[in-house]
Specification:
Helix content of chain B: 25-40%
Order of helices and strands of chain A: HHEEEEEEEEEEE
Oligomer: heterodimer
Order of helices and strands of chain B: HHHEEHEEEE
Radius of gyration of chain A: 20 Å
Shape of chain A: elongated
CATH architecture of chain B: Roll
Number of domains of chain B: 1
Number of helices of chain B: 4
Number of helices of chain A: 2
Number of strands of chain A: 11
Largest sheet of chain A: 7 strands, antiparallel
């Protein structure tokens, strides 16, 4: 009993309460645990696996191309997990499966067996990012992707 | 000099009074959230739902909408659809319940705003649907316009929102 509680139970109790409070704040507001549901980010993130979104990752910088981010819907209980391929002000298009940024093809080493998607060029506004999943071996109509407002981007996936 | 005990007693009574007050006279936002929880519960059903229960729940669900309700559905990969009127909502509810597997519906993360009068509210929320036996989850951001009619908050308009345009 002494090993668990220690010689000063009051101090141990206070420490335990503080630790619980810090954990609550961190995992509720800062590092948000997410369970991947769906195949749109395979093989990078597999269906049913766990990860986390760091909501402070863009405190001092802006989202970058290649970042995998959480995009919230009406709240943070459910998020889209997608990769940023287009930045504000750029024109994004798909040409036979290749992403083109301002007419130039984008290198995407994380892609596997991508189908030949085609999408007309779309110019992004000053607060808009183009996000898409890594699994493009599915029909384009079955894949949720597109323009996300900056305010909807919660943070970057931790790993 | 008022004792500490007396101050604490008064504070406890005041706190209890507030709890009771908000229990019996909840604010509009809380009422709306409760109403949405009820809608989600009524929209959920199991495959072995009894016919009378099915009818009752579909009717009660339809009564959660105003008579002139308009539902606009614009989903990726599907043709834009519009449903008008409470009766049509009832018909579609019955059809969905008779179609086969059950479904669990949740309305998550409601954000309630009162832009004009307190008789009207705009609610942004996420619709989550899990069809029995299917591994995939359906999620869709929605915007609801709710109206207070005869003291009850009813859904007047439903629109799908494109989170990723």
């Amino acid at each position: 009993m002494a090993i668990i509680i220690g010689r000063k139970p009051k101090r141990t109790f206070i420490r335990a309460v503080c630790l619980a409070a810090v954990c609550f704040v961190v995992f509720k507001f800062v590092v948000l645990p997410v369970r991947v549901a769906g195949i749109s980010m395979e093989p990078t993130y597999l269906d049913g696996t766990w990860n986390a979104v760091n909501s402070l990752s863009y405190l001092r910088s802006e989202p970058q191309r290649g970042d995998v981010v959480g995009v919230q819907l009406s709240g943070r209980s459910i998020m889209f997990l997608k990769r940023i391929v287009g930045l504000p002000g750029e024109t994004v298009a798909f040409d036979k499966g290749v992403v083109k940024i301002d007419g130039r093809p984008l290198e995407e080493p994380y892609l596997r067996n991508a189908l030949k998607w085609d999408k007309d060029p779309e110019r992004l506004g000053p607060d808009e990012f183009f996000v898409v999943g890594d699994n493009r071996s599915m029909d384009m109509a079955d894949h949720s992707f597109g323009v996300a407002k900056r305010a909807k981007i919660v943070g970057k996936v931790v790993r | 000099m008022i004792s500490v005990k007396r101050i604490l007693l008064v504070a406890a009574i005041a706190g209890l009074g507030l709890v009771v007050w908000f229990k019996f006279f909840p604010g509009d936002e809380k009422v709306i959230r409760k109403q949405l929880e009820k809608v989600a519960r009524l929209a959920s059903f199991s495959a072995d739902e009894a016919p009378l229960t099915r009818l009752g729940n579909a009717k009660e669900l339809a009564n959660s909408f105003t008579p002139d309700v308009r539902i606009e559905i614009n989903l990726q990969g599907l043709r834009e659809q519009s449903i008008e009127g409470r009766d049509r909502v009832f018909e579609m509810g019955m059809a969905a319940r008779g179609a086969g597997p059950g479904a669990k519906v949740e309305l998550i993360d409601p954000v309630v705003d009162f832009p004009g009068s307190r008789d009207s509210a705009i609610v942004g929320l996420t619709l989550k649907v899990q069809v029995s036996g299917q591994p995939d989850l359906g999620v869709q951001e929605m915007r609801l316009t709710m109206k207070k009619l005869s003291g009850e908050w009813l859904i007047q308009r439903v629109e799908t929102v494109k989170t990723l345009r």
